[in-house]
């Protein structure tokens, strides 16, 4: 006698809420088990339209309606590019919500590192290294503070940083002298000064011979020779004999006078600037100036690290601009260089 397995059902009366698993599963079903006829399909205007015919010999993919091409999407016209919107250039991503607008202006190129000025290009008949001066009408000359010289009084080689009017470095100048000459001759010492550019190339060389600075001696006055590049003389600064005011002439390589410099009656000033005006060769038209700037009480009293400003015409020859830069160093040594922490009295002091 065979027995047919039957599901286990405890002997609970239906009134207590018991229900078999099969009956509970059927009760939870909320959809018809069998599809009914007459189920509406998609509207006619949304029916997929057959695309262009397949190429000769091509076979449609399984499940693809007749006439469809592989990769063709329903609802798009032939030649449509996904992601493309009218009004935007093909290949350029159109702006999307939530993203910043594209940058239409590229950032300006940065200058050389270290705060140096960018060298101008495309200049002809210009000594190498003087291209920087072609676009400059103002120079700032800052002398470096030497701690050994400030506290001990031991004279060291002077160092200067030359900048343009926006604070970019143009040159770096270093005095080349021996210890005995610096400490024995003081501000009257002869020296060689080398001026370097950003690439550590010596572009200007200054030579100051030993001479007298007394206004009572008209035969052996101060002078300085300027070379650019080193070995090629481009001009000179020569002191003219004067009792009341310091006077200089700026000469070109041929020895012709190009500019004149006239200083003040007194070169000592408290909390103020001292100006040496630059005139044309006839001495009537003022074209620029060399200014000893007040650098603060502590710096003026305890050091000889001075600040200078040079104002000159923009269209002036770069060679004469370099000579005026040399004149600034000569004026610094003659009037504002200290000897054993005491201000030096120049020929303009009475």
Automatic annotation (TrEMBL):
Keywords on record: Calcium, Lipoprotein, Palmitate
Cofactor(s) in the UniProt record: Ca(2+)
Protein name (Swiss-Prot/TrEMBL): Phospholipid scramblase
Entry annotated with the keyword Lipoprotein: yes
Higher taxonomy: Eukaryota, Metazoa, Ecdysozoa, Arthropoda, Hexapoda
Family: Belongs to the phospholipid scramblase family.
Coiled-coil ranges per UniProt: none
Renumbered residue ranges of the record's region Disordered: 1-70
Any Gene Ontology CC annotation: plasma membrane
